[in-house]
Design goal:
The protein is of the alpha+beta class. 36% of the residues lie in helices and 23% in strands. It is built from 26 helices and 28 strands.
């Protein structure tokens, strides 16, 4: 959590004046992001959401949209939904509508929302939300243009253009008006008073339940002891206690910056008030609507978290087995248990506590998450196996039974790692039934490894070979394993065995291995005008190849960064080559009319041999080659490491381009 003190923020108004800026509203015009309006809000334990319609001229999606005052992106949409988003000809704006609300966001300001958050909220609140998903988030770049009014009594949210609301009007409607809000690093900081005199700042945050206080600062106030100093919102001679409204979670002080402190609001605090925040007018207005949200359960949980004591967390789980913090307590107890190498029994006992507060249809997902945590932490195999086996008990009621196959594969891997080959075979074989067709090749490789261990040579050879039939769905490392397996086992088969001929036929259509440090295969393809070109045409240049498609959500989301890179290295021997896998070249041409990408373009379609030559398994695929055509980097995202490699290999880089 970022932390900042008053001494750092005091300079902001001075700097603003110096540069001719102001934290006050400058215009009575309606913001470019729309007129705002009012809408009913849903209050989850950790988030606030609105039921809205996302709309363009040719696309429409009804969904719940989470508001996140701490989100630095204007608008985010879950990747699976973003991939379906379409705009009309010449259209650049996504409309965000409610019965009495209207906002908009430019298509270039739309990013990808975290699938985990959206999937979790969608699953947990499916019944409450009438089975409508939670697929988007709205952030600070839009919210900053409005006075945000949160009426928790009526569960109503209102966005009014900031210039249309004044501090004087807020004083007529609210008990307190806190002045002097500061904006810094796309965040809003609210002045509060501690120890009756110290003015410090609290980040305004709507994305979590927990209201937080820096541990070091809390210690200076003797918090959470009985004699702890007051922390309050103060307006002249009026004040509202913060520490009495909500228990405060103490967060660690970062080692690199121990001298600063901060607080951050959460819904445990905010829901005790009806409020209006207008950062451009510099105020937060409050009317207390609850005597207190302070809970003993929170205080006990926060103390155990401060101490990072798994035994205290066990005690919390015994005292409050149905509390809202149980799932979080179980997760932290589980992680601490991994660090302490706890035995199987206390870890599984804690998980059972979490299961007791988890809806039946969510129990498989819940345990699957812990299985992933244990496996990623190199936990003892017996613990991961126990969690996986327990998860399979809830497959029948799961909302995502497709994950059953992944759990079975993982259990097979764990048993194989313990040299329990027969148990591994059992889980691998079970995963082959009613599974995801895209994992068929993976299952066959896994079965082949077991059959090879059992010296069942023909079964092993057949599964290795058949795993390569649809190599695009097979991870590169497993494809290499399969080809190496075929080489190993061939000597154990009769030369006349028909399996050998079958494998030869399959290998004719298997993609070539693509290895870093080796030349990328020279291919030919047509540009968008139908003129054939070759990769040799780009010899002498550092080339970033982007294999993409207009229907691919992650591809579109990556275009702004791709443009930045092209501009950054303009004037050097660097270039971009976009290679489209769209079915029709006209689709690409039409896309580029509204979304210009000023560099070379090829069109290869969905089934070109280029996919085999370059081993393309998904979109986008980025490949970086140097002036001689040697492959320097490859991946499905444009990483900082890849950009560093560009900088290291280009010639003629100007300092101005890199700043």
């Amino acid at each position: 959590m970022k932390r900042i003190s008053f001494c750092n923020l005091i300079w902001l108004p001075i700097l603003a004046l110096f540069f001719g800026l102001s934290l006050q509203a400058q215009s009575q015009d309606i913001p470019e992001t729309g007129i705002g309006g009012a809408v009913d809000m849903s209050i989850y334990s950790d988030n606030i959401a609105m039921r809205l319609v996302l709309e363009t001229e040719v696309w429409r999606k009804e969904t719940y949209v989470v508001i996140d005052y701490a989100q630095t992106n204007a608008f985010e949409i879950q990747s699976c939904v973003l991939g379906t988003l379409r705009f009309g000809e010449g259209e650049d704006t996504l409309k965000i509508k409610g019965p009495n609300l209207e906002l908009s966001v430019n298509r270039s300001d739309i990013g990808v929302a975290a699938d985990l958050l959206c999937n979790t909220l969608t699953a947990e609140y499916a019944e409450e939300n009438d089975q409508i998903d939670v697929a988007a988030k709205i952030g600070w770049p839009i919210l900053k243009n409005y006075a945000l009014n949160l009426d928790f009594d009526s569960q109503r949210l209102t966005l009014t253009p900031s210039a249309e609301r004044t501090e004087a009007e807020a004083r007529q409607q609210f008990e307190l008006v806190i002045q002097g809000l500061q904006q810094m690093n796309d965040e809003v900081w609210v002045p509060v008073v501690a120890n009756n005199s110290d003015r410090v700042f609290m980040q305004f945050d709507t994305s979590t339940y927990h209201t937080r206080i820096d541990r070091t600062f809390g210690d200076t106030l003797a918090y959470p002891g009985e004699d702890a100093a007051e922390i309050a919102f103060v307006d002249g001679d009026k004040s509202k206690s913060i520490k009495d409204m909500a228990a405060l979670m103490q967060t660690p002080t970062p080692e690199e910056d121990p001298g600063l402190f901060v607080m951050a609001s959460g819904l445990s605090l905010l829901t005790g008030f009806n409020l209006e925040i207008n950062p451009n007018a510099g105020y937060l207005a409050l009317t207390q609507v609850k005597n207190s949200n302070w809970r003993e359960e929170d205080a006990v949980f926060y103390q155990a978290m401060r101490n990072q004591d798994r035994h205290e967390l066990d005690a919390f789980l015994e005292l409050y087995p149905e509390d809202r913090n149980v799932e979080e307590a179980v997760l932290n107890r589980f992680v601490l248990g991994l660090d302490a190498a706890d035995s199987l029994e206390p870890q599984m006992a804690a998980l059972e506590k979490g299961l007791n507060v988890t809806p039946e249809q969510e129990k498989f997902r819940y345990l699957n998450d812990f299985l992933n945590v244990a496996y990623a932490s190199d936990a003892q195999p017996d613990l991961s196996i126990a969690v996986g086996v327990r998860a399979l008990d809830y497959v029948a009621t799961a909302e995502n039974p497709g994950d059953r196959q992944k759990v079975q594969l993982l259990l097979g891997d764990l048993h194989y790692g313990k040299e329990e080959v027969d148990e591994a075979w059992r889980y691998y074989l079970s995963s082959a039934f009613n599974g995801d067709p895209r994992l068929e090749g993976v299952v066959k490789v896994k079965l082949a490894t077991v059959y090879e261990e059992q010296q069942r040579w023909r079964r092993a050879y057949a599964n290795y070979a058949r795993s390569l039939r649809d190599q695009r769905t097979l991870p590169e490392d497993l494809a290499a394993d399969a080809q190496e397996g075929l080489s190993r086992i061939r000597e154990h088969l009769d030369p006349s065995d028909p399996l050998l001929k079958e494998a030869e036929n399959i290998l004719l259509y298997v993609a070539k291995p693509v290895k870093l440090g080796e030349p990328l295969s020279i291919v030919k393809a047509s540009n968008l005008d139908g003129v054939e070109q070759s990769l040799t045409d780009f010899q002498g240049q550092v080339v970033l190849i982007d294999v993409w498609a207009t229907w691919c959500g992650p591809c579109i989301a990556g275009l702004p960064k791709l443009r930045e890179v092209a501009q950054q290295f303009e004037g050097t021997d660097f270039t971009v080559l976009s290679v489209s896998a769209d079915d029709q070249v006209e689709t690409v041409k039409e896309f580029l009319i509204d979304e210009p990408l000023p560099w070379d373009h090829w069109h290869i379609g969905a089934s070109s041999d280029v996919h085999l030559e370059w081993n393309i398994r998904g979109y986008p695929t980025y490949m970086l080659i140097d002036q001689e055509g040697t492959l320097l980097a490859r991946g499905h995202s444009l990483t900082d490491e890849m950009i560093d490699l560009i900088e290291q290999n280009v010639k003629g880089v100007s300092v101005s381009n890199l700043q």
